[in-house]
Design a protein that fits this description.
Length: about 800
């Protein structure tokens, strides 16, 4: 310990003697270490930390699957072969399975809620089956959860509320149990309060028993999200095999509705974090490459510093210092450097983590689990030690074995670094440039992909449009006449406000991640399979929806106020539906028939409906998703009573928020008003995940590029400094300044070319792994690779220019005087 403290004091003196070199090295390490800690804290919270439930590895999500599809690369509502469960199918699997300790269904959505002393508001809640909390293994902090009999209609007027809602609406009143909770105009009783942080599914504020009857929907109408807990000792593979056998038995019993219909289970954690996993793994790998580039740069700095200390090390060796003693001294100095870099890196990581979370814009699941915890601190220590080992070991090994004869024969500090030292420095620069090339190519592909994505026409005009989520109380608007009267009056009064051009209403907004789908039959077209619930997206809209969204009319007419319950039932199609149902023919006056009721909130009567118009395509699910067939139904012909108001304005739509809220309150004080967003914000949120990945990748690539460029500059400049004697001799015997300039520049550029070509080869291999993250861009896009290569070679040449220019200013007399 005494020797260590002595070495540490000496290391501090060395640091203070040349603070510029050691300070630059410490800051570089802080940047690399901080980036890794920040990204790992996100990866740890989202991917590595287990779900906060007992035995989380036994929790699975249960989906119905299309046996004709084999693509399960994504596990969500947009997965091509997966669907939520139908109500009667759910009951069958719940009662007949032998692999689950419990299986529970959920149906989430907004509801109008009011509590004593508070205005009616729109709150996200979930209808669940009675064993929901027991299946997850979560207990309330107050009261109880649901009883089996409360699953039945008429007995389900109870709710369990989240901790946040208990705090906001009831002021954490310990006597909240038994208080009234008005939902959809009907009284419910609060029976329990869940612990802090429990909001499952995401953002849910309260839970109520579903009360779904077994025969509520056909077997081919899917909207129940299901999760289950495997019995102890039952693997996912064994459970999948048994459930698949059940699915074949159900298909035989209901061949028309369940043809080619199977079952698919996946770990619940995979469903929650699956979409973000490849992006976070990519970013963690990129952060690791940045750290390697930084370590290479620091190694070069320490090699340069070691060369300037060759005479000091040689004298200590001549006086009896062994190589082990010298290595200990040099590694102690590196340890001091690493400690400073690691400490600064931890501070940078704290800022970087906050920046990352803001950039994610709510697109990262389990965001509440992200923190600098003991696991992150352990990773910080590990990555700091690894960085110190990589950055300090090779320079220490090289410096601790001086050639005494060469050093003392050279005299003073005039000698240059050995061949081994120069080769190691050049190798480090080559590796830095190779990794920088790889990162910049990856960033270029993501940037091009994102620009291509942003250039996609969404099918509507998003500027100057405000959207407002609204829900009418069920007890007040329980028939077509009441709902149509309300929406007509609301539209007329909103359109009368100053600054409003048009107003309309829709069931689900585009890019919202929600939709209703139904299988349909098209008159005169090949009959669609009755079990294909992805045949068409169904929208319920008022006449003002299309002009407010800027959706163009292609054929026929739009809806009018006369398309109400007394008029013939009609529909409008998008262009994709017209092309798919009647290719090459006009769809006007042809009829479509819905094969499944698409929701309990707004019944659409059975029967065929003529097509009266065709409108432009909207990319309902996202800019990176294909256009789906879409059928629009007039809101005045059904009892649908919740959705989003769409208002096109003449100026800034946010300036009208208060006046629109006030007008809605005047129309009906019990009307629940939810999220207020611009359509531009919704469109922006729909590309938040690729923006998050692209931005961080670009930041890391620029850091790598800057560090690598500095490494090239430092290596060439150091080489010029070491070769001052050689260059002066060359000039003394006749070499011109231009020749010396070309000599230095050529060596630097050749060094850069070696690194860039190596990186290019690596990029051609590794960028293939990014294919799933790219939109309309090949992972081998030649324009990106050529552009990045040309830009980097120019930067390398520029980094070599200044040292080459300095070499031309060497005084030839120095070489003659020394000789």
């Amino acid at each position: 310990m005494k020797a260590f403290l002595q070495d540490l004091r000496y290391g501090v003196r060395m640091f203070l003697a040349v603070p510029t070199i050691y300070g630059a090295a410490a800051l570089s390490l802080a940047l690399g270490i901080g980036a890794n800690i920040a990204i790992f804290s996100v990866v740890n919270g989202v991917l590595l930390r287990p779900l906060p439930y007992p035995a989380p590895d036994r929790l699975v999500a249960v989906w119905e699957r299309d046996l004709k599809s084999s693509d399960f690369s994504r596990v969500d509502d947009l997965a091509p072969g997966l669907r939520p469960m139908a109500v009667p199918n759910f009951f069958d699997y719940r009662e007949q399975n032998k692999v689950f300790d419990g299986i529970v269904g959920m149906s989430t959505g907004n509801a109008t809620v009011s509590v004593a002393g508070h205005d009616t508001t729109k709150v996200f809640g979930s209808g669940v089956f009675a064993n929901f909390f027991e299946t997850l293994g979560v207990r309330p902090i107050l009261g109880r959860t649901f009883r089996p009999e409360e699953e039945q209609a008429g007995h389900n007027k109870v709710v369990v509320i989240s901790y946040g809602l208990w705090e906001e609406a009831y002021g954490k009143d310990p006597k909240v149990l038994g208080k009234k909770f008005i939902m959809e105009g009907m009284e419910h009783t609060v029976v329990g309060v869940m612990p802090p942080g429990f909001e499952f599914p995401k953002d849910v504020r309260f839970w109520h028993p579903t009360g779904f009857p077994r025969d509520m929907t056909p077997r081919n109408f899917n909207f129940i999200r299901a999760i289950a807990r495997l019995k102890p000792g039952i693997s996912i593979e064994a459970a999948q095999a048994q459930l698949s056998t059940m699915a074949r038995r159900f298909e035989q019993a209901y061949p028309e509705e369940l043809k080619n219909r199977g079952i698919y289970i996946v770990p619940l954690a995979d469903q929650i974090v699956g979409p973000i996993r490849p992006r976070l793994i990519l970013l963690l790998g990129v952060a690791g490459l940045v750290l390697l580039i930084v370590c290479g740069n620091v190694s070069n700095l320490l090699l340069a510093r070691g060369t300037s200390r060759r005479r000091e090390i040689a004298i200590r060796t001549a006086l009896g210092a062994g190589r082990r003693r010298l290595m200990r001294q040099l590694l102690t100095e590196s340890l001091l450097l690493i400690a400073i870099g690691g400490g600064l890196g931890l501070l940078l990581a704290s800022w970087g983590m906050r920046f990352t979370l803001r950039l994610a814009s709510g697109q990262i699941p389990r965001i509440e689990s992200i923190a600098i915890d003991p696991m992150v601190l352990a990773f910080s220590l590990l990555v700091t030690l690894i960085a110190g080992l990589i950055a300090g070991l090779f320079p220490a090994l090289q410096t601790a074995r001086p050639d005494l004869t060469q050093v003392f024969n050279e005299g003073g500090d005039r000698g240059s670094a050995g061949i081994g030292t120069r080769r190691l420095g050049r190798l480090l620069v080559v590796l830095q440039l190779a990794m920088a090339m790889l990162l910049v190519c990856g960033a270029g592909l993501l940037v091009k992909s994102f620009l291509r994505l942003k250039a996609v026409d969404p099918g509507f005009i998003p500027d100057k449009v405000l959207t407002v989520e609204i829900t009418t109380p069920a007890v007040k608007y329980d028939n077509i006449q009441k709902t149509s009267t309300f929406f007509k009056d609301m539209t007329r009064r909103i359109e009368a406000l100053p600054g409003v051009r048009s107003a309309g209403f829709t069931f689900f907004l585009p890019m919202s991640g929600q939709s209703a789908t139904s299988a349909v039959q098209a008159e005169g077209a090949p009959q669609l399979s009755s079990n294909d619930t992805k045949a068409a997206v169904v929208q319920v809209v008022t006449p003002g929806f299309f002009p407010s969204m800027g959706v163009p009319l292609r054929q026929g007419r739009l809806f009018t106020d006369r398309d109400d319950a007394k008029a013939p039932q009609v529909v409008i199609l998008n262009e994709e539906a017209a092309r798919r149902f009647w290719p090459g023919k006009s769809p006007l006056d042809r009829k479509v028939k819905f094969l499944a009721d698409f929701g309990p909130a707004g019944k659409i009567e059975e029967g065929s409906r003529p097509v009266v118009g065709v409108v432009g395509d909207i990319r309902h699910y996202g800019l990176d998703q294909d256009v789906e067939p879409e059928i629009y139904y007039p809101n005045y012909q059904c009892t649908w009573r919740w959705g989003s108001l769409v208002v096109r304005t003449t100026g800034d739509p946010l300036l009208l928020v208060q006046s629109i809220r006030r007008e809605l309150r005047n129309i009906d004080p019990d009307l629940a008003v939810g999220k207020v967003r611009t359509l531009e914000q919704i469109l922006s949120d729909s590309v938040a995940k690729p923006l998050f990945t692209t931005t961080l990748m670009l930041i890391f690539a620029l850091i790598a590029l800057a560090v690598a460029s500095i490494g090239v500059y430092g290596t060439v400049a150091y080489s010029v400094g070491q070769r001052t004697h050689e260059l002066s001799v060359r000039m003394a015997v006749g070499a011109g300044r231009r020749e010396v300039f070309r000599l230095v520049l050529r060596e630097g550029v050749l060094l850069g070319l070696t690194g860039l070509v190596t990186g290019l080869i690596g990029a051609l291999v590794l960028t293939r792994l990014m294919k799933s993250l790219l939109f309309d861009v090949s992972p081998l896009d030649p324009s990106i690779f050529v552009s990045v290569f040309l830009v980097l070679i120019v930067l390398v040449a520029f980094a070599c220019f200044l040292p080459a220019r300095r070499a031309t200013r060497v005084d030839p007399l120095d070489g003659l005087r020394y000789e």
